[in-house]
Amino acid sequence: AGRQGDARDAYEESIRIIEGIRGNLTIDEFKSIYLDNKREVYERLINLLQQMGESADAFSYSERAKARTFLDLLANKKIDYKKAGNNELILAEQEKRFEIRNMYRLLQGRDHEGSSAEGGRQVNTRYLFNELRSSQEEYQEILLQIKLSHPDYSHLVNIEPVDLAKTRRTLKENTAMLAYWISEEGVHSWLISRDKFRHHLAEIEQKELNELIGTPRRLIASYSGNAQNP
Questions:
Q1: Neighbours of 104 (CB within 10 A)
Q2: Which of 103, 146, 161, 186 allows an S-S link to 203, with CB 3.0 to 4.6 Å?
Q3: Strand 186-192, strand 197-202: pairing
């Protein structure tokens, strides 16, 4: 249990850093520089939380990951801060985000260096990590100020965890919501209603799942084409 708790803390800290330095990049930049293997962090945390019996938190992180990806698509170019109410504050957010991103790039580069001068490299890496942590704390303070002064902009650069209780209260009686997350272990699904919250893991390999999904998609596409061209 202790190791699981430590692992959870580490994954949550990783996600906090990941989300703090995503933003003003194009989709191509995300693919080539930043997003590689980042989804895996969410996936491991979601699987771990389910093993710990923390299904509600697992659901929250799955929705958080999907929401973050959707916002990246909406804001895949530099955000126009000129229309915002506090230009100086938003400029500070963007500058701090780029600063954090550049430090992360340096850390990634050091991870790929050879083993020569290992002692000096470890010292510099530790220094960079401490600087990254400090900058991340400053960034969170900036986000808080933005949230108070310009919430619309805040929604483009910051993700609030899903409030499961609030979500359940918004559902009408005899209405249920189905959410899912696809992982290497299979498909996590959550059935949510006003009085129920249930999780199910359908163990299935990615290849088999792709085949199951691909077949009806092809049939639907074929039917749509025939309907348009009788």
A1: 20
A2: 186
A3: antiparallel
pLDDT digits (tens, 9 = 90+) for 29-70: 444 445 556 788 888 999 999 999 999 999 999 988 887 776
Furthest-apart CA pair in the chain: how many Å? 72
C-alpha 160/C-alpha 60 separation (Å) is 10
Do 164 and 56 contact (CB within 8 A), yes or no? yes
What percent of the chain is predicted at pLDDT more than 90? 18
- Token pair, residue 99, equals 């600063």
CA torsion 190-168-42-79 (nearest 10°) is 130
Per-residue CA distances from 116 to 110, 119, 135, 186 (Å): 11, 9, 29, 41
> Cβ distance 200 to 189 under 8 Å?
yes
40, HSE (Cβ side, Cα atoms, 13 Å): 5
DSSP state of 79: -
**Tokens standing for residue 228:** 């348009």
Q: Is the pTM of this model over 0.85?
A: no
**How far is 9 from 6, CA to CA, in rounded Å?**
5
Buried/exposed 14-51: b ≥16 CB within 10 Å, e otherwise: ebebbbbbbbbbeeeebeeebbeebeebbbbbbbbbbe
> Which residues, including other chains, have CB under 8 Å from residue 121's CB and lie 6 or more apart?
110, 113
The string of pLDDT tens digits covering residues 212-224 is 888 888 888 887 6
